Fold:
Amino acid sequence: MNIDMIRAAAARLDGHARRTPLLTSPFLDDIAGRRVIVKPECLQHTGSFKFRGGWSAVTALDTETRKRGVIAYSSGNHAQGVAFAAAQHGAPAVIIMPNDAPRLKVENTRALGAEVVLYDRPGGEAREEVGNRIASERGLTLIKPYDDPEVIAGQGTCGLEIAAQAAEMGIDHADVLTCCGGGGLTSGIALALEADAPGLRARPCEPEGFDDTARSLRSGRIARNAKTSGSLCDAIITPAPGEITFPILSRLCGPGLVVTEDEALHAIALAFLRLKIVVEPGGAVALAAALFHGDEIDGDAVIAVCTGGNVDPDVFKLALDRFA
Amino acid sequence: MNIDMIRAAAARLDGHARRTPLLTSPFLDDIAGRRVIVKPECLQHTGSFKFRGGWSAVTALDTETRKRGVIAYSSGNHAQGVAFAAAQHGAPAVIIMPNDAPRLKVENTRALGAEVVLYDRPGGEAREEVGNRIASERGLTLIKPYDDPEVIAGQGTCGLEIAAQAAEMGIDHADVLTCCGGGGLTSGIALALEADAPGLRARPCEPEGFDDTARSLRSGRIARNAKTSGSLCDAIITPAPGEITFPILSRLCGPGLVVTEDEALHAIALAFLRLKIVVEPGGAVALAAALFHGDEIDGDAVIAVCTGGNVDPDVFKLALDRFA
Structure:
């Protein structure tokens, strides 16, 4: 896993992924007490940065392998990113989802061209059994959500863009806050910044109660979450940092930041009011940290990645009711 | 008013206005039955394209004139665009608003650096009297919302971007739908497309009951709206096309499109779900026309400008409740 893989992924993504802009608002600067620069990956294809990793992984396969198809376990943003990337190559994609996944997510993933296979949760045939059986029957390649070098390389292209765009704005020293689940995006961005913008430092952000990465960074070894459900920030809830991602995070990242669910909802409302973008709770924790945890941040500017916008309308309305 | 003024405005806006990206979604393509490409000007500074015209007009003034300051009549997007553009030049800005303007709009405009002067509506001192008195006392320059060549030139920079970005996407023939009030944006875009993308044609879009531009284009002379209030699409409700804008619209634009308020709300919900952008009703009528009036549009692609995102949270929730 190195910068050359990220640059190669960037070449494959060129003209296919969106180069999302950097957004700012004087109102957010006032709240944070420093310049706040937002990278809105909610505007990426399929509504999250996951399209980058999906496209990178699908295009890294040789033609014959790709033709047989890919498989992923996800009910969320990774599913949509992989499905859409595969569909644009005419490659079959099978997405394994729990049979209690929201119908809208199932329908969206199907509409993006994937075959959705449901498994029983918690009883019945286990998720991996279902997936392994189908993968071996059809010769599908598994695309993991974060602990996969080509996926990390794809997410890292977001970091190359941040490095270039921050330089255009004259920012050469700042923390780059990222919403962090398994660490695919954060580790990819950290590697890209190390190469292209060494004055920028990646810092993972997580919701309270699911701060496995912050604790892992503090202790120097992989710590796990006590639970992996029960958060509005579902998009970034994972059991623990990955085997590939954690050593990168550990070497390159600053300390993790932890925000409350209320702070994430407040950030959603402010992104609505001031930036005119739609952010989901798990995609808003980095902005929440930038706005409400300024005492843990140094420097006169901070960059926050808003990682996704696939939010339930009811959750969005809740954020507006409480904070807009 | 010509293309050279637009190119000069583009040079002045370079590095200051955002080059908003083009957004797409396969879900919107399915609804429209053709490719739908969205230019999200809601992501522009101050939440609407109006910053372009404000910046263009402020920077077109000579230094001494600018130092004395500018004045505008507006309770909406034009006010914020002018206020923010003036503030960044250290130039005073006076915005004349009715004293029943929403407090939030007054506060926002003040926070962007302007002095807000309220006038009594409908009784009391008339708006123009208040404005003229202050302007002459202080030597302020009036910046009109649309019937001003430098404002049109600024809005036209959006058209230059569309021409270049559409070419990058391989689109050389398509209708470019714009939300249209007095016609500043639409005429600016039309001139830019004439010069840089002659296969793209601007078409104004308006809400039902306020279709002065569509009627003017049909009859060949300026027609007026029967009323200028009572629409959720307040941002684009004006009495009639402008004296400067209408001849340009008449020469270059295709027929106007007219949508219902419900269609605009539906477009807001779809922009939330599929593009992750926040659009106001008046900024959604072009997207609504692209999605729901396809039988009035030719070609396998259509470009829609989402012109602004300064929407009241309650109106946004209404759109989600009904259509998300």
In short: The interface with chain B takes residues 18-21, 23-24, 26-27, 30, 40, 42-43, 45, 47, 84, 108, 111-112, 272-273, 275-279, 309, 313, 316-317, 320-321, 324 of chain A (CB under 8 Å). Chain A has a mean pLDDT of 95. The longest strand of chain A covers residues 200-207.
